[in-house]
């Protein structure tokens, strides 16, 4: 991910730093190229536009044009603004609520939601020594429930016993009750996904949210789907008020636009990223590290 963007931005900024003096025109021209590079990397239009405007606003100031190393100053501004666009500081999952802390996992089918649920459960149990219970609310796809049960065995994390015929809300309430009785710290609720956004899916998840009042609503989105991931994020955030994002398949060779746009479009932090299929292949999203990688 980000390789093509890294090449493009590297080239543009290199040319800028090799020049001695910079005029406002030089900066404006470079920013047009940066904007084009971002759009080609699938960054949402409004995000690319606002990014370039912010960099330009700071870069055409006297400090840069009069500086002895103007190109390097522009590079620093681009770096700072990239970090700001990505959300500044790494933010993990919050567990600052009364136990059992309900966490709702939402997203489209195939986004990596169930895998991410298991990855988070494993991370919380091994790293933070929390007692975690997972429950699948996908009443229409028994295979999804079985999948979570299998992942639970593989990760050695408890899953709520499957009871046929219950609604998603009933299962969610049963999971919270089991969480209370069993002394669990966290209850991860893996909601049903659909292949496309639809009202019935959203209505069901909204009902579940009302029933359990989750501390975190994490949207799992596939970074390889580019602009579609951004559209999905907007829709889920509008309906549910998500608290953060889990971006999967950052190990793939997508252009990276979704990863770069998500925070700016939703205003919600990317909390974790999936970087492979294994349970341990999940990292905190660190805006500085990503910006460093993109700018080389
Ligand atoms: P769900 O339908 O949203 O629950 O999706 P699943 O969790 O079943 O994941 C679909 C596929 O994506 C599975 O084969 C996962 O192993 C794979 N997957 C999930 N996250 C990642 C990731 O971060 N990187 C890679 N390479 N594959 C992933």
From TrEMBL:
Question: Which residues does GTP bind?
Answer: 107-114, 190-194, 248-251
Keywords recorded for this protein, A-Z: Cytoplasm, GTP-binding, Hydrolase, Nucleotide-binding, Ribonucleoprotein, RNA-binding, Signal recognition particle
Record-level Gene Ontology MF annotations:
7S RNA binding; GTP binding; GTPase activity
Is RNA-binding a UniProt keyword of this protein?
yes
Q: Which GO terms describe its cellular component?
A: plasma membrane; signal recognition particle
Q: Where is the SRP54-type proteins GTP-binding domain?
A: 269-282
Which reaction is catalysed here? Answer: GTP + H2O = GDP + phosphate + H(+)
Q: Which residues form the signal peptide?
A: none
EC numbers on record: 3.6.5.4
BP terms from Gene Ontology: SRP-dependent cotranslational protein targeting to membrane
Q: Where in the cell is it found?
A: Cell inner membrane; Cytoplasm
Q: How does the record classify its membrane topology?
A: Peripheral membrane protein
- Judged by the first EC level, this protein's enzyme class is hydrolase
Q: How does it assemble?
A: Part of the signal recognition particle protein translocation system, which is composed of SRP and FtsY. SRP is a ribonucleoprotein composed of Ffh and a 4.5S RNA molecule.
Instruction: Present the record's domain note.
Output: Composed of three domains: the N-terminal N domain, which is responsible for interactions with the ribosome, the central G domain, which binds GTP, and the C-terminal M domain, which binds the RNA and the signal sequence of the RNC.
Q: What does this protein do?
A: Involved in targeting and insertion of nascent membrane proteins into the cytoplasmic membrane. Binds to the hydrophobic signal sequence of the ribosome-nascent chain (RNC) as it emerges from the ribosomes. The SRP-RNC complex is then targeted to the cytoplasmic membrane where it interacts with the SRP receptor FtsY. Interaction with FtsY leads to the transfer of the RNC complex to the Sec translocase for insertion into the membrane, the hydrolysis of GTP by both Ffh and FtsY, and the dissociation of the SRP-FtsY complex into the individual components.
Per the record, the similarity remark reads: Belongs to the GTP-binding SRP family. SRP54 subfamily.
Q: Can you name this protein?
A: Signal recognition particle protein
Gene name in the database record: ffh
> Span of the full-length protein shown?
1 to 296 of 510
């Amino acid at each position: 991910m980000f390789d093509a963007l890294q090449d493009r931005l590297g080239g543009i900024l290199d040319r800028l730093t090799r020049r001695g003096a910079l005029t406002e025109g030089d900066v404006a021209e470079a920013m047009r190229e940066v904007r084009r590079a971002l759009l080609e990397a699938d960054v949402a239009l409004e995000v690319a536009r606002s990014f370039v405007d912010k960099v330009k606003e700071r870069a055409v100031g006297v400090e840069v044009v009069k500086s002895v190393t103007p190109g390097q100053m522009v590079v620093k501004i681009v770096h700072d603004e990239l970090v700001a666009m990505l959300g500044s500081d790494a933010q993990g999952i919050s567990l600052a609520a009364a136990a059992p802390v309900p966490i709702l996992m939402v997203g489209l089918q195939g986004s990596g939601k169930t895998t991410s649920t298991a990855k988070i459960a494993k991370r919380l149990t091994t790293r933070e020594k929390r007692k975690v219970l997972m429950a699948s609310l996908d009443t229409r796809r028994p295979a999804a429930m079985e999948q979570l049960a299998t992942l639970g065995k593989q990760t050695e994390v408890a899953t709520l016993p499957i009871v046929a015929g219950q609604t998603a809300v009933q299962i969610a309430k049963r999971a919270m009750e089991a969480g209370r009785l069993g002394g669990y710290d966290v209850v991860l609720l893996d909601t049903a996904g659909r292949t496309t956004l639809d009202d019935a899916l959203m209505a069901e998840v909204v009902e579940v949210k009302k029933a359990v009042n989750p501390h975190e609503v994490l949207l799992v989105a596939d970074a390889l789907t580019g602009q579609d991931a951004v559209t999905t994020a907007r829709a889920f955030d509008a309906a549910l008020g998500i608290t953060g994002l889990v971006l999967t398949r950052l190990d793939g060779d997508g252009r990276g636009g979704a990863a770069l746009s998500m925070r700016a479009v939703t205003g919600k932090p990317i909390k974790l990223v999936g970087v492979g299929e294994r349970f341990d292949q999940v990292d905190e999203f660190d805006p500085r590290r990503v910006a460093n990688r993109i700018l080389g």
